[in-house]
Design a protein that fits this description.
231 residues, alpha/beta, 6-stranded parallel β-sheet, 26% helix
Length: 231
């Protein structure tokens, strides 16, 4: 009797939150990697923009999708700034235009070319908000390098920047899992819920905690059931 071939792990590109980097996000999601180690391979990239108050001058030369950066405040990165003058970001700041999003889309495009292919994409906080935008670009056929089959958005939200409203004009068809904490004080669950109508096939996983990627045994089944659809 022939042996049954084992399934290859799903490859997922991971997009960190504001003031994080690929290395620090990898450390913070160690429990998730352990929880899903038989199903997925998580690949981490780093945002191209240095958070001014946290970075020294030359640290912005770190490769855009590097996963080998050191931890610490000096490597705090962001995907765009809502305050153009101060080069700062707040998820709740209303603004007409932002700074840096185009460079971040380019960085993701290069990461996909160099580190891919990927089955899916996962984002946390500002990274999750970026993932929603990337999915919109993919479905508008504006980024031929993108071919994500699913998205996982942890503590996601709709950007409050007016120039980003175009990303939410039509429901996205890509299957999505939205994960958020009911006690999140950074991105309140109300903000995460407001992102749900942007996705036509949105599945939700809530947890009683705050602003982090949950990976307790109680969450394993929801993650696994969602991912099994793509194996």
């Amino acid at each position: 009797m022939a042996a049954v071939a084992s399934r290859s792990p799903l490859r997922i590109l991971c997009i960190h939150g504001y003031r994080q980097n690929g290395s620090s996000f990898r450390e913070k999601t160690g429990a998730l990697r352990k929880l899903l180690k038989k199903q997925v391979e998580l690949v981490y990239m780093t945002a191209p923009h240095c958070v001014p108050q946290a970075c020294s001058g030359e640290s912005s030369s770190t490769p855009q999708h590097s996963v080998s950066v050191s931890g610490g405040d000096e490597d705090s990165r962001g995907w765009w700034f809502s305050d153009v003058q101060a080069r700062a970001f707040s998820a709740q700041q209303q603004c007409e235009e932002s700074l840096g999003l185009d460079e971040s889309v380019t960085a993701v495009r290069e990461a996909v070319k160099d580190l891919g292919p990927f089955d899916g994409i996962l984002g946390f906080s500002q990274g999750a908000a970026l993932v929603a935008m990337l999915c919109s670009l993919q479905e508008q056929n504006l980024e031929p390098e993108f071919s994500f089959r699913f998205a996982v958005l942890v503590a996601g939200f709709r950007s409050a920047c007016e120039e980003h409203h175009k990303f939410y004009s039509a429901p996205l068809l890509i299957p999505s899992l939205h994960v958020f904490g009911l006690e999140d004080r950074v991105i309140p669950d109300k903000m995460s819920r407001e992102l749900l109508p942007t996705f036509q096939d949105a599945q939700v996983l809530t947890h009683p905690g705050g602003h982090f990627v949950p990976a307790a045994s109680a969450h394993r089944q929801t993650y696994q059931d969602f991912l099994k659809r793509f194996q």
